[in-house]
């Protein structure tokens, strides 16, 4: 039996010997840990889909509240800025206060912010509510993943749990597009925010009953200077790339924020090596498998969110799909992603390790991006769109579940929250950077295409198609780079089941 250190804030779980003896934990029967997965998965789905569900509702919200096209992007940016910049702080809160407390506070705060946003009478209230959603999401997401990490320590059960969780993380954005289309078309754009109350209520009741209270016995001290540096640095990075959508790279509001972000993050890294109580202990990112997992989440997030954006525009503006039809078009990809996540976690990872899985998944995703460059105004869904989407789902399913599993393996219980936060930070910042960068490249490509041509509707439409093609090629480049980097970094062979006594980490189970 694999022995593990039980986090006092995680819900009770039993080893194989305990299960055979028929002993129950103090939190209830062994089966409760699978209900914990349902609770955590519900919360994670709410956070992930909220990054895209509002996109489809934006035109209706703009008409209702009367804000300008220039201000429209702040509905998305406000969420991304707060979420991306506060994730590491939110992860440390889970280590300081306990996973249950942080999880429940995050749920309540997210629900209240969603209610305010849904009832917003003005643009300013809606933007403030979106920022609050992002802030509480930054508290909630790391707590959810660290609960999963400390609840499932049995090798086979951990594989299944992370397979499901990885599928939720990868498919949530596509589910958000579908749900946003349904709610906007049949109810009202405000329900794209109100629907979070249903998710939060279900997760809160389950978390209140199933999770065990308490903070880790060896909880760390909060690194205030480190928190300020990394929060400010991440804010500057996300804001700088978001600013590219409205201004050029040469404006001070773009390169100034990017430069400041880089300087602050470098200062943060230097400080973490000197302080006695680091916010992000270097041992968390120093492990090769963990570092490779963080980079995989960053690069795949950059490529994935970008393609969702441009493929959504293509289907609605070029093929004239409705919002609901656009959302439905992504469902086959979601199905393959879920199936791939489960198969990889349960069958492939325990046998061959991450080294062949994640780089291959990156290659599949990159191939899907290259395939999408063949789309034109006469393309059809079943012949030209669905096949590359299926390949993309296969690739992302191989990347997400494996990376999330190994990124949180063999960490000390006191570092579980911040390690989980790094997973979310990598994906969120990658998505923000990728979306902003690809949007800038696509806009530039469309403008270049129009130079020297008559601005007829047909030429304008072709310019849009050209811009999408450029974005797909760059997404393919992200995934190609990810394939090379992860192949070089991941260790060969099966994942280690348990840290050896001489390791710097406490003896906790590894990913499997």
Strands, helices and their partners?
Layout: H1 16-21, H2 32-49, H3 53-65, H4 69-72, H5 74-97, H6 99-118, H7 123-151, H8 155-186, H9 191-210, H10 224-243, H11 252-272, H12 282-286, H13 288-318, H14 323-329, H15 331-352, H16 357-372, H17 381-407, H18 416-450, H19 457-489
Helix pairs in contact: 2-7, 2-8, 2-9, 3-8, 5-6, 5-7, 5-10, 5-18, 6-7, 6-9, 7-18, 8-14, 8-15, 8-17, 10-11, 10-18, 13-17, 13-18, 13-19, 15-17, 16-17, 16-19, 18-19
Word description of this protein:
- There is one protein chain.
- The chain is mainly alpha-helical.
- It folds into 2 domains: 29-222 and 279-489, Growth Hormone, Chain: A (Up-down Bundle), CATH 1.20.1250; 223-278.
- It is built from 19 helices and no strands.
- The protein has helices at 16-21, 32-49, 53-65, 69-72, 74-97, 99-118, 123-151, 155-186, 191-210, 224-243, 252-272, 282-286, 288-318, 323-329, 331-352, 357-372, 381-407, 416-450, 457-489.
- Helix 2 (32-49) crosses helix 8 (155-186) and helix 7 crosses helix 18.
- The longest helix has 35 residues, at 416-450.
- It starts with 15 loop residues before the first helix and ends in a 23-residue tail after the last helix.
């Amino acid at each position: 039996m694999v022995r593990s250190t039980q986090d006092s804030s995680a819900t009770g779980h039993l080893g194989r010997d305990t299960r055979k003896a028929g002993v129950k934990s103090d939190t209830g029967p062994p089966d409760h840990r699978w209900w914990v997965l349902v609770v955590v998965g519900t919360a994670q789905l709410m956070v992930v889909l909220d990054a895209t569900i509002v996109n489809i509702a934006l035109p209706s919200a703009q008409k209702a509240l009367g804000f300008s096209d220039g201000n429209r992007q702040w509905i998305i940016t406000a969420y991304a800025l707060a979420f991306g910049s506060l994730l590491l702080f939110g992860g440390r809160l889970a280590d300081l206060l306990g996973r249950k407390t942080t999880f429940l506070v995050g749920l309540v705060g997210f629900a209240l912010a969603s209610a305010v946003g849904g009832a917003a009478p003005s643009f300013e209230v809606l933007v403030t509510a979106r920022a609050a959603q992002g802030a509480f999401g930054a508290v909630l997401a790391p707590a959810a993943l660290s609960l999963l990490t400390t609840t499932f320590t049995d090798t086979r059960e951990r594989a299944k749990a992370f397979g499901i969780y990885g599928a939720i993380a990868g498919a949530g954005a596509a589910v958000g597009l579908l749900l946003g289309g349904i709610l906007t078309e049949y109810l009202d754009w405000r329900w794209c925010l109100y629907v979070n109350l249903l998710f939060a209520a279900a997760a809160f009741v389950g978390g209140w009953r199933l999770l065990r209270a308490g903070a880790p016995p060896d909880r760390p001290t909060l690194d205030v200077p480190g928190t300020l540096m990394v929060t400010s640095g991440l804010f500057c990075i996300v804001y700088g790339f978001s600013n590219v959508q409205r201004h050029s790279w040469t404006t001070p509001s773009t390169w100034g924020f990017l430069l400041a972000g880089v300087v602050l993050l470098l200062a943060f890294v230097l400080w973490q090596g000197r302080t006695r109580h680091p916010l992000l202990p270097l041992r968390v990112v120093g492990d090769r498998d963990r570092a490779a997992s963080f980079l995989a989440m960053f690069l795949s997030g950059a490529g994935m969110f970008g393609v969702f954006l441009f493929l959504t525009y293509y289907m609605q503006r070029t093929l004239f799909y409705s919002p609901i039809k656009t959302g439905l078009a992504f469902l086959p990809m979601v199905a393959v992603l879920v199936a791939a996540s489960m198969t990889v976690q349960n069958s492939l990872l325990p046998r061959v390790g991450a080294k062949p899985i994640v780089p291959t998944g990156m290659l599949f995703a990159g191939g899907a991006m290259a395939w999408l460059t063949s789309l034109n105004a006469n393309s059809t869904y079943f012949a030209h769109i669905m096949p590359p989407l299926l390949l993309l789902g296969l690739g992302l399913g191989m990347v997400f579940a494996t990376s999330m599993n190994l990124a949180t393996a063999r960490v000390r219980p006191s570092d579980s929250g911040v390690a989980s936060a790094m997973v979310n930070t990598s994906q969120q910042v990658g998505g923000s950077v990728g979306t902003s960068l690809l949007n800038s490249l696509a806009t530039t490509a469309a403008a270049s295409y129009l130079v020297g041509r008559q601005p007829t509707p047909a030429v304008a439409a072709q310019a849009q198609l050209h811009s999408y093609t450029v974005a797909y090629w760059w997404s393919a480049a992200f995934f190609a780079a990810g394939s090379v980097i992860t192949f070089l970094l991941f260790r060969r062979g099966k994942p280690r089941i348990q840290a050896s006594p001489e390791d710097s980490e406490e003896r906790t189970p590894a990913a499997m």
